[in-house]
Design a protein that fits this description.
Elements: H1 8-28, E1 46-53, E2 56-63, H2 70-83, E3 99-106, E4 110-112, E5 130-135, E6 138-142, H3 144-150, H4 154-164, E7 178-182, E8 184-189, E9 195-198
Helix pairs in contact: 1-2
Length: 201
């Protein structure tokens, strides 16, 4: 996904659709039908939808694997992020006008297979890679932009992904733990509604 497979106009269309989806669901509990979309937005992709109000996180839910067409995934995840993220109360009518949406389109996660687990940080590039750690049915995922926003190095990124999985922060050293990396194209709007695109870097 290093090539600009998606354009800024694709991102604007997805974010606009996510806004309309959330507004329709919050106001009328109606799920919008998908009538038409470009072919590439109908291809199955892993995706995450992140919601912010006044710059503060208000919801983030996604699918790391390509289980549904992208446009359908964005619709369903937008609703879930707005109403089902257990960390937050549901988005309210009053917040709709200040809602900022970020959509991450993911590559399929690839497992890091290393003889020496201590070498793992060297194989992770902050700003390019997202992480998934899976151990004993506990799974944690963090998007690439999280490490950048928090100012983590690759080792700290691994530790926080373990924490997200509710396992000890050094569990990435466990030979039984599976570490996956993935990349994403990110479309995000600022407080004025301007959409920017970030490619894996």
């Amino acid at each position: 996904m290093a090539d600009p497979e998606y354009s800024i106009s694709d991102g604007k269309a997805l974010i606009d659709f996510a806004h309309k989806t959330i507004e329709s669901y919050i106001k009328d509990e109606m799920v919008l039908e998908i009538t038409d979309a470009p072919k590439k937005l109908k291809e199955k992709r892993g995706a995450f939808v992140t919601l912010k109000v006044k710059g503060e996180l208000r919801g983030c839910i996604g699918h790391p694997l390509p289980v549904a067409p992208l446009i359908e995934a964005v619709r369903d995840l937008a609703i879930s992020s707005a109403t089902e993220d257990y960390r937050f109360s549901p988005i309210t009518m009053d917040e709709l006008g200040e809602l900022q949406i970020e959509i991450s389109i993911l590559t399929v996660p690839e497992e890091l297979k290393l003889k020496d687990r201590k070498e793992a940080p060297k194989h992770i590039k902050v700003g390019r890679d997202g992480l998934v750690i899976d151990l004993d049915y506990n799974k944690g995922l963090l998007l690439p932009q999280v490490a950048v926003e928090e100012g983590w190095n690759s080792k700290q990124f691994l530790e926080h992904t373990c924490w997200k999985a509710s396992i000890p922060e050094d569990s990435w050293l466990d030979k039984e733990a599976k570490i996956f990396t993935f990349q994403s194209v990110i479309f995000a709007e600022d407080k004025k509604g301007k959409v920017r695109m970030t490619l894996p870097g």
